[in-house]
């Protein structure tokens, strides 16, 4: 049995205009617009009753008529899910009602700043449509404001003066309730922009991660390597700290593809990358250079320490086992240390040369090349 509560009923009311195909953003806009229009319609009943009780029948009839028309528009929206027409009709009603009410009361002096409610028309356009639409609604608001100023003396001459105490009461009610709703809309606007900004940041971070990551192995790609090596070389030149570079290449990788297939080759690449990554230190950097070649950057590491680390990596590679193949994996490593003022291609070329010396020397070995 479904529990009926005021909160549950309100939630059901706010989503009546939502269609199954609506995006999350559109669902939120529909719910907020329904809440704002329904809140003003409810307050209009209260306002109309107060004006009738105070002896202003015409002024009381205007908010009550607004409530009937506004709720009719809302119910039509619930049935058709046509958000564009709903927005326009509600904005038009919200724009006209306060001015009609102010005119019936006798203009600015007796109006108790009731025209503040008309500001919701351009605000709604800004939040739910765009800046261009908001500008049009703001121009309409200014035009009605100027018209009111031009005809203010005429309205005042044909209206019954409102007692100062009652005028003050309506002034407080209009400004208080009006600014509360404006604050709620601004809160929604700020939260919506914050959410959109966070989504954009996450998307940019995700896109950048994809641009800098090798999709197969999950380690950095060549683009990321170029960026990082450039940074490390600049850091080395500034702080005079050693920087070692290791080139690693899987031995007989083409034979693995030929004997076991490319799927097994991909498995080997992922396993090799994972083993290197888990053996490296937190400060080290690893990237797939191309094919079965990987480059390791070892900041603050001299040639002797880099050579020892490469030996540990070589031994760790031999320990890799595969369920689908009786395969002993080995790799050849070339180690070098960047010299002051050396360019990125020069460092990589020497590491590559050292790695090929390991290949020509029998594979499954580490070669250190400094000159």
Walkthrough of the structure:
With 371 residues, the protein is α+β, with helices and mostly antiparallel strands. It has two domains: 6-208, no CATH class; 222-368, 2-Layer Sandwich (Alpha-Beta Plaits). Helix content is 68%, strand content 8%. The protein is built from 14 helices and five strands. It has helices at 6-14, 24-53, 57-80, 83-105, 108-111, 120-128, 131-150, 152-157, 164-212, 222-239, 253-260, 262-279, 303-318, 344-360, and strands at residues 243-250, 285-290, 293-299, 331-337, 366-368. The protein has a five-stranded mixed sheet, with helices on both faces. Strand 2 and strand 3 form a beta hairpin. The radius of gyration is 36 Å and the shape is elongated. The termini are far apart. The mean pLDDT is 89.
């Amino acid at each position: 049995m479904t529990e009926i509560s005021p909160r549950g009923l309100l939630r059901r009311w706010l989503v009546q205009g939502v269609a199954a195909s609506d995006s999350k953003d559109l669902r939120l806009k529909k719910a907020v617009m329904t809440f704002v229009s329904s809140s003003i319609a409810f307050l209009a009943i209260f306002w109309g009753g107060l004006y009738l009780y105070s002896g202003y029948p015409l002024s009381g009839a205007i908010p009550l008529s607004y409530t009937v028309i506004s709720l009719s528009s809302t119910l039509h929206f619930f049935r058709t899910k046509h958000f564009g027409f709903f927005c326009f009709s509600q904005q038009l009603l919200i724009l006209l009602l306060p001015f009609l009410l102010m005119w019936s009361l006798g203009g600015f002096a007796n109006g108790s700043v009731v025209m503040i409610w008309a500001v919701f028309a351009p605000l709604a356009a800004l939040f739910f449509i765009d800046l261009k639409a908001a500008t049009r609604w703001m121009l309409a608001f200014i035009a009605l404001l100027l018209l009111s100023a031009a005809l203010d003396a005429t309205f005042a001459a044909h209206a019954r003066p409102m007692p100062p105490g009652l005028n003050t009461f309506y002034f407080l009610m209009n400004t208080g309730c009006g600014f509360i709703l404006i604050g709620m809309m601004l809160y929604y606007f700020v939260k919506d922009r914050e959410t959109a900004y966070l989504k954009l940041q996450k998307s940019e971070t995700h896109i950048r991660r994809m641009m800098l990551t090798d999709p197969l192995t999950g380690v950095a790609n060549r683009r990321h390597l170029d960026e990082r090596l450039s940074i490390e070389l600049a850091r080395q030149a500034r702080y005079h700290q050693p920087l070692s570079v290791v080139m690693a290449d899987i031995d007989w990788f083409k034979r693995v593809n030929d004997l076991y297939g490319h799927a097994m080759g991909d498995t080997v690449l992922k396993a090799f990358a994972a083993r290197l990554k888990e053996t490296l230190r937190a400060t080290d950097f690893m990237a797939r250079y191309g094919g079965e070649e990987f480059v390791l950057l070892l900041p603050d590491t001299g040639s002797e320490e880099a050579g020892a680390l490469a030996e540990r990596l070589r031994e760790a590679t031999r320990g890799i086992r595969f369920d689908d193949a009786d395969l002993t994996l080995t790799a050849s490593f070339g180690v070098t240390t960047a010299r002051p003022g050396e360019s990125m291609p020069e460092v990589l070329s020497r590491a590559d040369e050292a790695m090929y010396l390991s290949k020509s020397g029998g594979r499954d070995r580490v070669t250190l090349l400094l000159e």
